Amino acid sequence: MTRHAKAPTITTFANKPPVGNSDDMYRITGLPRREPPTQDSVEAQALIEYMTEKLRKPTPRHCDCRTRYHRESCITRLRFAQAWGLYEAGIVDGMYGAIGVGWGKTGLAMLAPRVVKNCHCAVLLLPSNVAQQFVDEYHLMAPHWHVPSLISHAPKVLDPKTGGIFKNDIGPPYIHLVPYTILQQPDATDKLTRLNPDLIIADEMHNISSLESARTNRVIRHFRERNNTRFIGMSGTPMDKSIKDSAHLQLMALKAYAPIPIMPDVLDEWASALDPVEVPTPPGELRRLCPGMPPTVENVREGFRLRMVQTAGVIATTESVVADIELSLQELEAPPTPPEIKAALNKLRDDWQRPDGEILIDAMSVHACALQLACGFYYKWVFPRGMDEALIDEWRTARKLWFSELRHFVAFRKEHLDSPFLCQQAAQRAWGEMEDEQATDFVTDQEALEAAQEDLETFGEGGGPEMTVHASLEQAMGAMYDRAAVRPKPLWKAMHWPRWAKVRKLVKPTSVAERMSPFLAEFTARWALERPAVIWYTQRAFGLWVAELSGLPLHGGGVHAGRNINAEKGNRSIIASVKSHGTGRDGLQFKFHRQLFPNPQSSPKAWEQNLGRLHRPGQKEVTVYAWFFRHTPEVKRSVDVAVRCALGVQQLSGNVQKIVSNFLDLQQVDEPLDMSIFTY
C-alpha cells in the first residue's frame, strides 16, 4: 500500500531569542573555502589517477583474488571518494568523511596511514562484526597496494590463509585493529594510552558519536592528553538527529579549522536553530551563512551545509554510488491488530501500565513497550515464586537509588572510572567489599553484554553495562581530565551502594518475552516463505518467533556471524539482526534484492545503514525493494521521525539519505512529534 504526500517541512519558529553573534561565528565564517570536486569532473579523475599511482604496487605475478576470494576482478583502482579523501588527509593531516554507503571506506581506512605525515602507529576503530571482513579485504588489497602492517586486537579474527590469529608485521607504519566493543570494555580504560597512536581512524565513526558512552570519552581523553594525534573519521551517517552528534568528531579531525562551534553554549544555540526539531529557534546571526537569501530554516541549513562541505578536510559525497539502481521503499499493509493488543496498547498509553500490571516510569519505557506490543508480545520481569513482596519492593527502591547516583558519578569519565563497571568496583573497594570482578552487576562477555543491553533498553528502568549519562561537549573536551588525580585503584564512597549491596543478590528476576498474539509474526513468516528476502529484526523475541513459525534461518550475533550469513545462497529468505548485520556488512547485495523491516526504527542513521546493505555496489538487479510496517501510532511515529530527521541531516550534510530520496509518499504528521522519546 502506497501513500502519497510531501515530506513535512518546518515553518514556525520558537518564541526564543534568535541565534546571536560569537567568536565561533567569526572563526567559522572566516575559514578558507574550496569547491569540492564532483564525481564525473576532470579534477576527480585526476585525483583518482594520482593517488592510485602513488599507492599502488607494480602488478604482482600472482594473487588470490579470483582463486581464494572468488572476485571477478582485482582491486587495482581507487574510487572517487577514496582518492579524494586520501589526498586531502595527506594535506590537512586529518579528515572528516561524510561518505555514503558503498564508496569504499574500508580501503580508505587501510591506506590512510600511508598518506598522513610521519605516521608510525595508527589505531583503526571499527564495528566488531566487520573485523574479520576487514582482514579478508586486507588480504585482497595487500598484493596490489602499499598497505601498512596490520595487527588485530579482535578476538578470534583469523588469518584466511593460515587459519591462525592474524598478525602481519612488515614494518611501520603499523595499524592496530581495535573493535569498538573492545574499547568499551572495563580493562580497556587505558588501551589507547598503551598503544599510543599518532593517528586514530574511526570507520563508521557514528559509533563514537554519543558523549554518553565510555568508548567515546576514551577517544576524546586521548586527544585531550595528546593533542598532536591526528584523526580520520568516516561514516555514511555521521549525524543522526543533531549537529551535536558530530561536533567532537569534526574538532578532533580538523581542530581549529572545524566548521562547527567549539564552545558548548554556542553549539547548543546553533543546534536549536538547525536541528530537525518541531519548532526551531529563530536563525538570527546564522543568516550570515546564507547571504542574500531569506533566513528560513531550509536556507540556513543549506548555508551551514555549504560552509561545511567547502572546508578542506571535509569529504562529503553528495551523489549516490549506485545511481543506476532504483530503490523502491513502500509500506506493507499489516494484518488487523487483534482486540487484545489494542486493549493493551490503550491501557499502556493511558496508565503507563504493561499487561502484567507493571507500572512504567518514563515515556521512553512506554514507547519501547508499545513497539513490542505492536509485534504481539512484550518483555516482562519474572520474579522467583514465593518471594517476599516487601523484599522485591526494597530491591526495586535500592536499585533505582543506586543507578541514579551511578549515572551522575560516571559522567566525570576519569581514567579507571569511565564505566559503570569500574565505578562499582571503586565503590566496593571504598566500602571494604572488594570482590572478584565477576561479582559486579555488569557483564563483560560480549554476547551476554548485547543481550543485557537489549533487555535493559526494552525495560527502560535504568542500569546495565552501558549506562547513559548527560555529558556536555565542555565536559568531554574540557580540562576536567586531570591525570594526576587518577589512581590505579580509585575509591568511591557511594552513598547508596551499601543499601543496594545488601539486596542486589537476594532478588534475581529473569527477563522473558510474553507472547500475546502471533498476528504479525505469522504474517511475516508467510510473507518470507513466498519470496527470498532479508527480514531485518530489532526485537530479538520477534525474530525468534518468525524463525520458529517459518523454519527459516536466524542470523544473530556471534564470532562467526559474518561468515554464516555470507554462506547463504539467496534462494530462501533469512531473518537477520539489525544489530549484528545492519552496519558495515558487505556481500548480501550479491544474493538479495528484497528486504522487510517489521520493526522500523526512528533513527535515520539506522535506515541509511540498513537500506545500504542491499542498495550498494555489486547489486545486479535494477531495483532494490524494501517494505516496512506502519500499523500502530507508535510504529508510524518511528517512521515519521526517521524521515523528518533524515531530511534535516540531508539538508545539513548534503548526503542524500535513502529514506528521503525514495520515500516520497510520507503522510503529513497528524500531531506534533515528541522527539524526546527518540533520544539515544
TL;DR of this structure?
The protein is an alpha/beta fold and 680 residues long. The strands form 3 sheets. The chain has an 8-stranded mixed sheet.
Report on this model:
By secondary structure, the chain is α/β, with parallel strands linked by helices. The model is unreliable at 1-11, 443-487 and 664-680 (pLDDT under 50). The chain has 3 domains: 23-57 and 66-316, 3-Layer(aba) Sandwich (Rossmann fold); 326-340 and 517-678, Rossmann fold, CATH 3.40.50.300; 389-511, no CATH class. Helices cover 38% and strands 11% of the residues. Helix 14 crosses helix 18 (497-503) and helix 19 packs across helix 20.
**CATH C-level label of the largest domain:** Alpha Beta
Poorly predicted ranges: 1-11, 443-487, 664-680
At CATH level 2, the architecture of the largest domain is 3-Layer(aba) Sandwich
Mean of pLDDT: 80
Strand residue percentage: 5-15%
Q: Structural class from helices and strands?
A: alpha/beta
Number of domains: 3
The strands making up the biggest β-sheet line up spatially as: 4-3-5-2-6-7-1-8
User: Judging from the principal axes of the Cα atoms, what is the shape?
Assistant: globular
Oligomeric description of these chains: single chain
